[in-house]
Design a protein that fits this description.
alpha+beta
């Protein structure tokens, strides 16, 4: 029996979005994310609603050349503007994503937390090399830019993923 020890890492940050919370929050749902995240495509597997805006909805993706990733919405709270996902890319990593939106003087602040757990040596290496604080903050900056562009123009910002 081989001894494996999973690597665990968590990163958090906030983005400021230039619209009211009622307009911003739905963009973090799995279907509406395609409005601002270039290349984002999901395949719904189970949901009671067409926009998958409910706890328990399940879908899969194949992003950035990765294997199929399975997702479940753990929490969808329209009233408090919070959503959380769990996703697993078999043989690579397990990820939880928490997004909580609050109203601000500018519009909406969204706090985004990713937690990764390696499921293999390859998954551990990914976390140790690709999931840096600077890389995470860069990703959040891209999210902020893409979502604000959509809110301002109604169009997707090209070359965002």
């Amino acid at each position: 029996m081989t001894h494996f020890s999973a690597v665990h890492a968590s990163r958090s940050g906030s983005i400021q979005l230039d619209a009211p919370i009622e307009e911003v929050f739905p963009l973090f749902g799995p279907v509406r994310e395609a409005e601002w995240a270039e290349g984002w495509q999901i395949e719904p597997l189970y949901a009671a609603t067409p926009l998958l805006e409910e706890a328990g909805a399940v879908f899969q993706t194949r992003q950035h050349g990765e294997a199929v990733t399975l997702w479940i919405i753990q929490r969808f709270e329209r009233e408090t503007h919070g959503i959380s996902y769990a996703r697993v890319t078999p043989g690579l990593h397990l990820v939880t994503i928490e997004i909580d939106c609050t109203s601000s003087s500018r519009g909406t602040d969204a706090r985004v937390t990713y937690t990764l757990i390696g499921l293999s040596d390859e998954g551990n290496r990914f976390i140790e090399t690709e999931f840096s604080e600077s890389g995470y903050q860069h990703m959040l900056g891209q999210w902020e830019q893409a979502i604000n562009h959509l809110l301002k123009t109604g169009q997707m910002l090209a070359h965002h993923s």
